[in-house]
Amino acid sequence: MFKSTSKDDTRAHVFNTALALFREKGFNETTMREVAKASGLSLGAAYYYFRSKEDIVGAYYEHVQIEHLRRAREGFADARNLKQRLEVAFHSKLDIIADDRRLLVALFRYGGDSEHPLSWFGPDTQRQRDLSMGVFDEALSDEKLPADLRDAVPVMLWAMHMGLMLYMLFDESPQQQQTRKLADQAIPLSLQMTKLLRVPLVRTPIRKALAALLEADLIPPAARWRALGTEGGEA
Amino acid sequence: MFKSTSKDDTRAHVFNTALALFREKGFNETTMREVAKASGLSLGAAYYYFRSKEDIVGAYYEHVQIEHLRRAREGFADARNLKQRLEVAFHSKLDIIADDRRLLVALFRYGGDSEHPLSWFGPDTQRQRDLSMGVFDEALSDEKLPADLRDAVPVMLWAMHMGLMLYMLFDESPQQQQTRKLADQAIPLSLQMTKLLRVPLVRTPIRKALAALLEADLIPPAARWRALGTEGGEA
DNA sequence: TCGTCGATTTGAACATGTTCAAATCGTAGC
DNA sequence: GCTACGATTTGAACATGTTCAAATCGACGA
């Protein structure tokens, strides 16, 4: 019933070969001909498994998100409070991509191109966004927050984590320590800010800001991501 | 003393021809061969004036920034208060790029690529960033603010304006009304936030946040952009 | 075993950004 | 007017992502 190498297996093989090359030489510096040759395939065959070079990056990021969800949940189990859960949420993501800065460049490349499948806000990447926001939503878990904020905070945390990833792309410090440090400072500050939200003087303008963001469609409906990630992950 | 067509003239001609094509068909969809032909030059000659296709976009953005500074100052002259100055700062930028969404895509493309000349945070684009932050700095003008905040707020406004531009890329509403509306809501909210900064309860965590951003090199020295824009603009 | 049909593989061909050695042009100095 | 030299122009050639028609493979029914 099983071929020794199914289509999925070969695809995975090409995928891993390509990632290794991307990590080693960078995305731009790796040609599809090299990917094909290193995979033991002809150029055309490589294109049979991935529609395009960026499509490989797309698969990579899908993998990153699923892995993030997995590791985050694992970490959440041991975390004792919100601070620790946020640490898990941020650092597990950074752990996963730590060695892939040369690759992530490609992911950010088409972020602003609304017509591109890898666009940050396009329909094709919505699933990944939702998965990602879901992680931060779970980090908040049953935190007591007014409902409107409760649905918006995960989006803010997601935005922060996007910013952190961007920062990491430029972080040349060993092990990207700078990025880790920034994350470690951002987390307690976010918590303080959250507490400040209870002060009416602060809450009023924040409410207005949220209303504006909501109206601008920058805050997606929470229901969408909350359902996600429950229905089994990979193969 | 002047050739009828100096190198600069020809360069400007190629530039304008290219922009027209980019606007009409989009950046990706326009080939350098088309640019060359439409300019009445051979392919190689076009490359004599611009090192690369993106280099044209680089020149465009330089132009945008200078024009922004010009229009903003013009507008500041008539503005009666901070709110109006911020409106000028934001809307003049949006005015300039309003018809160029298909072109701006290329500008955002290499934002995250730290090795690319058009990178958002790379050394090659520092001048443009400084010019841009300078505009927001001038908008604040002599606003009374604690020194540390006074140097950071222009950076925050700059970041907001980057976000607005990104939003505009995805804004399909006629005339990009959505983006305008978002800007108009963001401005008074920013002002309210600024006032909140006087409340110690708020100011303390904000101070910490600024310290973190400063340490992360995300807030450049204010002196750099304040000097700028005083020494004459274009030709 | 043979024929058939879909899955897979192949490599040539194409489009397009970029490079470059050679040709051409224009002018300054004689 | 002529020459030399730098500025400009040219188009062929190259690299690389992508496409595609044709070849090959492999399993299944007859």
Description:
The structure is a homodimer of 235-residue chains. By secondary structure, chain A is mostly helical. Chain A folds into two domains: 7-50, Homeodomain-like (Arc Repressor Mutant, subunit A); 53-227, Tetracycline Repressor, domain 2 (Orthogonal Bundle), CATH 1.10.357. Chain A has eleven helices and no strands. The relative contact order of chain A is 0.10. The mean pLDDT of chain A is 91. Chain A binds chain B through residues 104-105, 107-114, 121, 166-167, 169-170, 178, 181-182, 185-186, 189, 192-193, 196, 199, 201-202, 205, 208-209, 212, 215-216, 218, and chain B through 104-105, 107-114, 121, 166-167, 169-170, 178, 181-182, 185-186, 189, 192-193, 196, 199, 201-202, 205, 208-209, 212, 215-218. The structure holds a DNA duplex (30 and 30 nucleotides).
> Biggest interface between protein chains, with counts per chain?
A-B, 34 and 35 residues
Mean pLDDT metric of chain A: 91
Q: What is the approximate shape of chain A?
A: elongated
Uncertain regions spanning at least 5 consecutive residues of chain A: none
What is the highest CATH level, the class of the largest domain in chain A?
A: Mainly Alpha
What percent of the residues of chain A sit in helical stretches (DSSP H or I)?
Answer: over 70%
**Radius of gyration of chain A from the CA trace?**
20 Å
CATH topology of the largest domain in chain A: Tetracycline Repressor, domain 2
Question: What is the count of distinct domains of chain A?
Answer: 2
Secondary structure: number of strands of chain A: 0
Instruction: Give the structural class of chain A.
Output: mainly alpha
- Sequence of secondary-structure elements of chain A: HHHHHHHHHHH
CATH architecture of the largest domain in chain A: Orthogonal Bundle
- Strand share of the residues of chain A? under 5%
